[in-house]
Amino acid sequence: MPSQHRWTDAQGRQTVQTIVKKLIPQWSNGLYSYQEDVILRVLDGQDVLCCLNTGGGKSAMFSVPLIVLREMTRNPHLYPRLRTRARPVGIVITPTKGLAANIVHELQKLDLPAFAYCHETITQSRKKGENLVKIIADCKTYSLICVDPEHLRDDSWRLITASDTFRANVIFGCVDEAHLINEWGAEFRPLFKHIGAFFRGRLPSTVAILALSATIQPGVETNSICRSLGFSGNNFYHLRLSNERHNLQFIIQPLDHGFSGDEFPELLEYLNQNRKTVVHCRRIEDLQRLFMYAFDSLPPGLDRLRRIKTYHSLHSFDVNTETLRLLDEDPMCQAVFATVAFTNGLNIRSIVDSLAYKFPKTLNLKLQEGGRAGRDPETRARAVTFIQPSVLSDAEKQISGRVDAPKISRKTGKPVRTKKTTPIEHSAALVLSESKCYIATINRIYQNPPLETSTLDCISAKRLLPCSLCAKRKKINIEYAPSPLPTDMTLPPFIAPATPQSAPLTPEEKKLKLTRKERDPVMLALEKFAEDVRRTEQYHPDNHHRPKSSYFPSSMREHLAGKLLALDSLFALRALLTSWNFASTYAGSLYDLVVELQATIRSDREAARVEKNAKQRATRLSKKALQDSEMSEVDDNVEESEHSDVDDDRRSSPIPPPAKRTKTGSGGVLKEVTNRTKLSSGRKESSRGKKSSKTKSQANVAKEKQTLATIAAGFGPAYRTTSDRRRARGG
Ligand SMILES: [Zn+2]
User: Fold this and answer.
1) Less crowded by CB within 10 Å, the N or C end of the chain?
2) What EC number(s) has UniProt assigned to this enzyme (predicted)?
3) Cα-to-centroid distance, 350 and ligand 1 (Å)
4) Are the C-beta atoms of 697 and 647 separated by less than 8 Å?
5) Phi-psi category of 344—alpha, beta or left, where left has phi over 0 and alpha has psi -120 to 50?
């Protein structure tokens, strides 16, 4: 039957308000007017681009139209004649299955049957012998289907969208987290770029296309998304509200340590405030290091894995879903360490702190990360980014257009080639280089209305939670309440684990320190040992969620290698590894390995010592032989000089022969004297030139001979010169 009214008319608005009040009493204040504006347009089949803050109620935009139409199907006599469908259904494109599962979970609370179309649920359905295509196309079982762009290519979706029933009942195609069309569509997941083509090509033209995001910057970014979805001119409704979060403090905290180590003391300062927290990590390796640090900071014996959890793509879908449930429902489950999968769209209402190591690639992603905290507007939340100070100065240089002069190599005098660093995204660099107010800068970038006040600093704008720059400038300290706990429950504090690396080496240990050449094979052997432990232990139920790196952590291996040669007993080894979870089982076999490595290193060192000594002895002997031959030459020269008037080239050489000492004292003196005289004669001759030195030289030689004879006479017959000895022999 043709409709009499449009939804955007007063009767449509009234109908939506009535149904929401009736079916969703938990929303005591009903819908915001901007939500109604979007919902009514979706019901009328208009396209909508909607940008508003995280936690601004975007999910109502796609859930309420379905709730309203389902109620109209159940009780048509209660409502005016408006355009409706018998079995209304909508499609939401979600970037991750985690977000899909999260939406399904949330919609269950609103009694709206939804389905996350992903690998796991498809498999489950197949095992049950269900015909999923028929179930979805019939529009009876599920009112909302969440699906990722990649699955839209499946034949199943060709069949679903070709079904007459489905085409008659589908009311919208929605893309959640629409900023990813640009961010992921470019390289990471190109099918994001094809969502618009799917909607336009496969769904009836009367179906509304809805794009939602908290982080689409005006200008180029918005235009690109509009082009991709086929929005142009006035043919779509563009809702842009401020994405500023009034209950969220934006904090950038420079680190005073590197990020490559295994210690993160600043993390514990936040965790010890006992607030529900998400710790965002860029890579799974970072996640494991951070998680292990927090894990080791909790007292053993306690169910540590209940207090802190991990959420990433290596977990099964069920494990991740369970983690999200526990975070919301178990008061003891305090923190989740998550990779990027967590940052897009998940709605965990209890989270109040969002901690992130390193700034993400784009400002959009940063706001998405931060947006996970403080979904309950009544709470005070924080979005903290721990960052290396060098990143802040890089951003500042990039924005100011300053480029450092290239470093010049001392050796070659040429500029040293440095690694080309990727430029920071412009919006991110603007924020990171900011020195007055982060929020004012972000509001300027997103053109958050009203610009007259949104671009003022936090103090002038009287923000409830000033950003870290404004708070520091004005010395404002904000108190943050812990997350609620049952009265009979207390949480033990996180205490930084003893850091083996910080204990200084004794002088004896320094002697025993391994060289790099010795250390490499040791580290390799310990790594292999760690892998053996993991292979053996990974199937134990207690270790189901244990990160790979935690079986024999690298920090422990480093520490052990540092003290390897100092370990003289199994007892000493155990003392070194008190915090190792597997010490009771593996200390014995590890000690066997230690002894073996020690023996190899000691035997190598001994062999090296013997070889070095042999080399030194050989050098000494060859030197001695050289000296002896030189000595006989000296004697011969002295002898020759008695008989020859012609100078020898060697004698005029400016380089003196080495001084020689014999073992007996007076003989040595004699020889030294001989040499000294030769040295002085040599110097004189060389300075004067050969020709003119001839007669002088002869005179000197004669003089020296006399001196030598005098000295020799003084010492007696035992210390005669060679020529004396020859003379004595009658030569
Ligand atoms: Zn500020």
Assistant:
1) N
2) 5.6.2.4
3) 25
4) yes
5) beta
H/E run at residue 278: strand 277-280
- State how far the Cα of 312 lies from the Cα of 358, in Å rounded to an integer: 18
Q: Is residue 331 a contact partner of residue 491, using CB atoms and an 8 Å limit?
A: no
Give the residue from 78, 342, 363 showing the smallest Cα distance to 215.
363
- Residue 390's contacts (CB-CB under 8 Å, 6 or more residues apart) are none
- Copy the structure tokens of residue 647: 């100078």
Residues comprising the chain, all counted:
731
Q: How far is the CA of 449 from the centre of ligand 1 (A)?
A: 16
Domain at 10-240: CATH code: 3.40.50.300
Radius of gyration of the chain (CA): 42
Q: In the chain, where does the domain assigned CATH 3.40.50.300 lie? A: 10-240, 248-404+422-473
CA–centroid distance, residue 477 to ligand 1 (Å):
13
User: What's the pLDDT score for residue 505?
Assistant: 63
Distance between Cα 93 and ligand 1 center (Å): 35
594 and 572 Cβ atoms separated by less than 8 Å:
no
Q: How far is 216 from 229, CA to CA, in rounded Å? A: 14
pLDDT per position as a tens digit, 283-328: 887 888 899 899 889 987 667 889 999 998 777 778 888 888 899 8
Residue 679's CB is within 10 A of a number of other CB atoms, namely 14
| Cross-strand bridge partners of residue 335 | 277, 308
Place of tokens 């999260």: 102
pLDDT of residue 166: 97
- Max Cα separation, the chain? 151
- 8 Å CB contact between 86 and 76: no
| Token pair belonging to 393 | 């100065």
623 CB neighbour count, 10 Å cutoff:
11
Q: How far is the CA of 267 from the centre of ligand 1 (A)?
A: 23
Task: Identify the band that residue 704 occupies on the pLDDT scale cut at 50, 70 and 90.
Answer: low
Give the pLDDT of residue 684. Answer: 42
The pTM of this model reads: 0.68
Torsions phi, psi of 355, nearest 5?
-105, 135
Strands 248-254 and 277-280, by their bridges, are: unpaired
Domain at 248-404+422-473, CATH class: alpha beta
Q: ∠ CA 722-723-729 to the nearest 5 degrees?
A: 90
pLDDT tens-digit series, residues 162-174? 999 999 999 999 9
245 alpha carbon – ligand 1 mean position (Å): 12
Cα of 50 vs centre of ligand 1, distance in Å, is: 26
Q: How far is the CA of 247 from the centre of ligand 1 (A)?
A: 13
Strand partners, 531: none
Q: How far is the CA of 26 from the centre of ligand 1 (A)?
A: 34
Q: Are 354 and 372 in contact (CB under 8 A)?
A: yes
E strands present in 94-221: 114-117, 144-147, 170-175, 208-213
Query: Two tokens at 428?
Result: 């991110």
